[in-house]
Specification:
Distance between the termini: 26 Å
Strand content: 15-25%
Largest sheet: 7 strands, parallel
Oligomer: single chain
Structural class: alpha/beta
Helix content: 25-40%
Shape: elongated
CATH superfamily of the largest domain: SPOUT methyltransferase, trefoil knot domain
CATH class of the largest domain: Alpha Beta
Number of domains: 2
CATH architecture of the largest domain: 3-Layer(aba) Sandwich
Order of helices and strands: EEHEEEEHEHEEHEHEHEH
CATH topology of the largest domain: Alpha/beta knot
């Protein structure tokens, strides 16, 4: 059954006009009045709806039933990802949604090649949010990935945060897997460096602010792999084996 995100309140018995981008998908999929859809608005749960009308550039649906179904991880996981080169962040966001990551914080670290002006950052955020919505539609999640505005590493690490912060480092003496096996599920922020890794100064600053250094194992993972591997590992160890 096709799934679509609608950024609006939804209620059983309501007839809703589908946004232009959703109406376009309806046409691409050759759906007709009477066909069933799944709608969600990111507030939890999902709605079964039936197409009520399909016109050239418009479509409407009648909301029939609500299900509280939830597919979130049993712990809140934030990925603090240093800005990678090219389109790698697109892939990271898509897979982070699929793996159940709750939030993503883009970081401007010392060794980041990418530098975003305020205007470029806003355009990137809009683009990344579109990717997150599409990934939620595809993966069956009923809540959206919370995408924060890009922040400088030093400013972000200095903020007070109730979540435990873990900085992935090949120089750490303990692995994430070994540590997690002896810990209860808990809210975490996993920090991943850019292609060249976090600098020694950044690692030291993170430790001063209470971050826990952990490794991903004996091999060096790419920036677009490390955080996703960490998310998959934690999900397996803490409740989605």
């Amino acid at each position: 059954m096709p799934r679509f995100y609608l950024a609006q309140p939804l209620a059983v018995g309501q007839t809703v006009e589908l946004p232009p981008e959703v109406a376009h998908h309806v046409h691409v999929l050759r759906l007709a009045p009477g066909d069933a859809l799944t709608l969600f608005n990111g507030e939890g749960g999902e709605y079964t709806a039936v197409l009520a009308g399909v016109q050239k550039r418009q479509a409407s649906a009648e909301v029939k039933t609500f299900s509280p179904r939830d597919s979130e991880l049993p712990f809140a996981l934030t990925l603090a990802q240093a800005l990678p080169e090219g389109t790698k962040m697109d892939w990271i966001i898509e897979k982070a949604v699929e793996l159940g990551v709750a939030g993503l914080q883009p970081l401007a670290a010392q060794r980041c090649v990418v530098r975003l002006s305020a205007e470029r950052a806003e355009k990137k955020l809009e683009h990344w949010r579109g990717i997150a919505v599409s990934a939620a539609e595809q993966s069956g999640r009923n809540r959206l990935l919370q995408l924060a505005e890009p922040a400088r590493f030093g400013e972000w690490i200095a903020q007070q945060d109730l979540h435990r912060r873990i900085i992935l480092s090949p120089r750490a003496s303990e692995s994430l897997g070994s540590w997690a096996r002896h810990q209860p599920p808990q809210a975490l922020a996993i920090m991943v460096g850019p292609e060249g890794g976090f600098s020694a100064e950044e690692e030291a600053e993170a430790l001063r602010h209470g971050a826990l250094p952990l490794a991903m194992g004996p091999r060096i993972l790419r920036t677009e792999t490390a955080g996703l591997a960490a998310a998959a590992m934690l999900a397996a160890l803490w409740g989605e084996g």
